[in-house]
Amino acid sequence: MKKTIQNNAQHIAPDAYPQMVSRQSAARALHTLRSAQTAEKAQAAMEAAIPPMRAAILQYVDEMEQAGDDMPAVFEKIHEIRGFAETAGLATTGRIAEILYHYRDDMERLGRPLDMTIVALHVSAIARAARAEEGDTRMGEVVAAELAALVARRLSDHS
Fold it and tell me: Which of 34, 49, 74, 153 matches a 20 to 30 Å C-alpha distance to 19?
């Protein structure tokens, strides 16, 4: 079933696409993907990626701190941190970066300037969480919750 659209592009229904592999090959591939052996290999690959990703996050943290008052540079690094931190096993770091990123977006939407004290607190908390020992996440979660509450109060003051 093909429909011609005004700009000469064609709309093809999903079931009308040609098959790339036979049904038997697709079933075999699906079975392999769902196997315990494949899951173990995938887990090992993910675990092997954690140390280099942690190193990359720590590099971003250093660059974030070195950016000082250059907010575009700070938020460029925060964007990267929030995207990769959880994969690197740094969930609290990513959570704090996410809170700050949303705060910036919300303040822009409201047409209000950032409170630089809030930014500084988050930057410091991101750095501290990223450098914390693996098992030392409880305090980071408390800090993340308090920062989220602070941002929520500040945003409600401006709404």
Answer: 34
Compute the distance between CA of residue 26 and CA of residue 11 in angstroms, rounded to an integer. 25
**CB neighbourhood size of 141 (10 A):** 14
Residues 6 or more apart in contact with residue 10 via CB below 8 angstroms: 2, 3, 4
In whole angstroms, what is the distance from residue 151 CA to residue 8 CA?
Answer: 50
Give the tens place of pLDDT for each residue, 57-78.
999 999 999 999 999 999 999 9
Judged by DSSP in three states, 153 sits in: helix
Q: What percent of the chain has pLDDT over 90?
A: 46
Residue 42, CA distances (Å) to 33, 36, 45, 49, 131 in order: 10, 10, 5, 11, 27
The pLDDT mean for the chain works out to 86
Give the up-direction half-sphere exposure of residue 11: CA atoms within 13 A in the CB hemisphere: 6
